[in-house]
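Subject: Interface between my chains keeps coming out wrong

I've been trying for a while to get a sensible model of this assembly. When I model each chain on its own everything looks fine, but I need the whole thing in one frame so I can look at the contacts. Pasting all components below, labels as-is. Any help appreciated, I'm running out of ideas.
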Amino acid sequence: MSERFHDIAVTVNGEEVRERVDARKTLVDFLREDIALTGSHVGCEHGVCGACSVRVDGVVVRGCLMLAVQCDGARVDTIEGVADTDEIADLQQAFIARNALQCGYCTPGMLLTAQELLARGGVPSREQIRTHLSGNYCRCTGYQAIVDAVEAVAQARAGAKR
Amino acid sequence: MKITDDSPPTVSALDRPNSYIGRSVPRPNLARLTHGRAQFVSDMTLPRMAHVAFVRSPHAHARIAAIATAAACKAPGVVAVVTGAELAKVITPWIGVLTHLKGIKSAPQHAIAVERACWQGEAVCAVVARTRAEAEDACGLVEVGYEELPTVTDAEPTNRAPSSPIGTRATRGSPSITARRRRT
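Reply #2:
Try treating it as a single job with all components included. I did that and got this:
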């Protein structure tokens, strides 16, 4: 008979966290409820909207489709942790300057996913940006300003490298 | 001590204090939103806060024959299980009206469905518990007996007899919809 509650050790934003969690608890609920990191949001709870996007071992995943117990021993980075390192400071600034957010609910997921694309280097086309962000839904902006912001940052970073 | 006058030489309407016209005004709370440190309603936690989950009708139109809540009431963490009939004792239904078109009104809208569910997904019972997971668990223990009723799946009144479900109940007293029916 498998146990319902499990002890897990997860490194969240660089800090080792040890908690006892229900086996069925999703990663995003664990982050929001047990660790009080509410920057990752719950939208659809079935993996299509992207509001729950977090980084697990460096890869952006759906927090609503992963279980907390799956992250035992893993490194999890949320928007709060990534924002604290200034890794996406130019992206955040571009979002603010170009009004790429209104209510802000999709924004954490949008930023982490966009950063995943930009970290590959190069200057993606608007089409490539849209394709990469196709798993992040925004009900407010109509996406145009978001694509503008990501494109501008890609160009700025490529220009700075030269 | 020399006093320098640093006012602009001419003053236009745009120089009025707090004039946003022609200005690009960034919103002050965008910094928090882009750092994941804003507070949405679902981010709030209050001491001894409870969570509610709803049992919803799977039928587009059905009479609610019975709701068995005993098992849900005993489920772990459950604070209360409330049916539409119980809630109707403390909340009156809402009736939508148009102030510029006298006489038009909606059917009474109950907070939680009372006698019948009128759309797929309409709440028929609320479960309040200590955590959202416990509330949703207890929702699964609520048993609702439905008697399916005919559904209306198009908006054209011409396709319906005056004695159809919508024709007789929902729009009594609504002049514009009555007028449409008279034309057909």
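Reply #3:
Confirming on my end. The first strand of chain B starts at residue 51 and ends at 56.
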